[in-house]
């Protein structure tokens, strides 16, 4: 297909120049088929104000023309046992390198996971220790407040008791005085 397209482009270049020259030299009408090339026929469709129109008909490729366009590939060189061994060793080295790279990546990932786990455990223990210290301080504060409250209650009870004794003493003195 590519060969045909290249041939088509070349022929179109030739045709455009040829038709220009022919139309200048021979203005009279030509027969229906303008040209007959090996692999295409050219027929004018009709004359237009903007120029000429042509119908290009491509012929199927002939077996003779295929042989002319066939490009031979370079001959394959003989591959020796040493070349095969070198290629196999290179492939093995690549495989080992890739495997080592995968193992390195896995080791780095495990190391990162271990670091994250250690950090989480450390943060957890720090949080637990801080919470325990906070709770201990709170319990100590509650105990101090309780002791202070109990002391204050005892003092008030003692003052009430003193006041009650004074009131009793004053009452007895009044009763003695009134008797």
Short description:
This protein has 179 residues and is mainly alpha-helical. It contains three helices and three strands.
Explain this structure:
The chain has 179 residues and is mostly helical. The protein has a domain at 2-69. It contains three helices and three strands; from the N terminus they run αβββαα. It has helices at residues 2-25, 63-69, 81-178, and strands spanning 35-36, 40-47, 52-58. Strands 1-2-3 form a three-stranded antiparallel beta sheet, with no helix packed on it. A hairpin with a 4-residue loop joins strand 2 (40-47) and strand 3 (52-58). The radius of gyration is 57 Å and the shape is elongated. The model has no long low-confidence stretch (mean pLDDT 82). Keywords: Cell projection, Coiled coil, Cytoplasm, Membrane, Phosphoprotein. Residues 81-115 form a coiled coil.
Topology:
Elements: H1 2-25, E1 35-36, E2 40-47, E3 52-58, H2 63-69, H3 81-178
Antiparallel strand pairs: 1-2, 2-3
